[in-house]
Amino acid sequence: MAFIDVIKSLFAGKQRDTGQKDYFNFLEGQVPIFGLFGQNIYSHDLVQNCIDRVATEVSKLEPKHIRTDAYGMRNVVNSNINRLLKYGPNEIMDTGSFLEKIIWLLFLNYNAFIYPTFDAIEANGMINRTYTGLYPLQPMIVEFIQDITGKMFIRLTFRNGEDYTLPYENIIHVRKKFSINASMGGGINGQPDNDAIQKTLDVNDVIIQGLEKAIRESLSIRGIVSIKTMLDDEKQEAERQRFENAIKNNESGIVAMDLKGEYIPIQRDPKVTDKDTLSFVQQKVLNYYGVSMPILTGDYTDTQYEAFFQTTIEPIIMSLGRNFSRVLFSARELAAGNEIVFYQKNLSYLSTASKIELIKVAGDQGLLTINQKLEILGYPPIEGGDVRTQSLNHIDASLANEYQMNQSKNGNGGKNNG
């Protein structure tokens, strides 16, 4: 089943319109109709490589339903939301591909919409939701409207021309560069504002075309053989073949010619852009997407990855967590400490020395089980390994004071006489 057919099945039986509505009145006074898919820069290989690097890293995250109790303790909740996030948000995507899809939509449109399907169950006078799926949407047109009570709706029009009007509060809406527009990420029209980066990409394309022309020129005619006699076409061709055979068959690099032929070399000096200029232009594109060259090539250090994670990945993680939580939980559930957290579990980017240091520091504090330590090092779990070990060099401060007081009572200035 094609993805568009899956989306159509989600809205099967739903009304295409829910009554009289007007466009939502934003303070900026703009009519809230937005067309998506501004793709003028995304055919560039460097742009695609940058987005792919970000999407790949985000796809490694592990989203979980977490509840924080009154004492500040965080626990993973055994809920249907957690099962969806762990094993696959919908029937055609696993968690990794689901997150990767969201990031590509976010970078392509500066807006990503996710529709959560659910069954509403009434119990004790309250409506509880049992979520059955999470679907990234690819609308062509987005409209913000309101009913007579002022409630906000969103009308999504898809490629096949069908449109559906849904409560905005039921749509997970993730935005990138949420600045000028009141409801959408991107520029004033709710689309990616790529004018600044477009100029840099145009320069980069000119440089690449110049390199191609320089290579072609270097492989073109290198010289002329001047024959000192009158030859017809057949004899000219035979003389050319004889000259080329002389070039192919010699090993010394010197070609012997008779008195009737003279080789006149053509001096060519194709100009290419120097390495520093090319690197400068490409670096501007990388900076725009928050991806360094070591991250792009995969040859990075722990420090370089940490900088990439904190500046580029972490803001996306926080935005995903807040928007998922806002839609998937009611106000009462949010007040009870429920939230969606996207965890970075995979530490494979760390060097062996850094992994050992992490195990030493976290392990001494009793933060890791034996199996968690083995997992960090890439080893499988062992039976009975779900126990925590802790260094005896670290004790509670109050116990330390009590210990010193007891030692002082033993006499000898607090020295142990035993």
Class by alpha and beta content? alpha+beta
The total tally of domains equals 3
In percent, how helical is the residue content?
Answer: 40-55%
Shape: flat
Pfam family, one: Phage_portal
Protein name: Phage portal protein
InterPro entries: Phage/GTA_portal
Keywords:
alpha+beta; 3 domains; 13 helices; Phage portal protein; Phage/GTA_portal
Walk me through what this model shows.
By secondary structure, the protein is of the alpha+beta class. It has three domains: 3-193 and 302-340, no CATH class; 222-267; 350-414, no CATH class. Helix content is 41%, strand content 18%. The chain has helices at 3-10, 45-58, 80-87, 95-109, 195-218, 233-249, 275-289, 293-297, 302-328, 331-335, 352-364, 370-376, 397-409; strands spanning 22-23, 33-35, 62-68, 74-76, 111-123, 126-137, 141-146, 152-157, 163-167, 172-175, 223-227, 261-265, 338-343. A hairpin with a 2-residue loop joins strand 5 and strand 6. Helix 2 crosses helix 4 (95-109), helix 2 packs across helix 7 and helix 5 runs antiparallel to helix 7 (275-289). It is flat, with a radius of gyration of 33 Å.
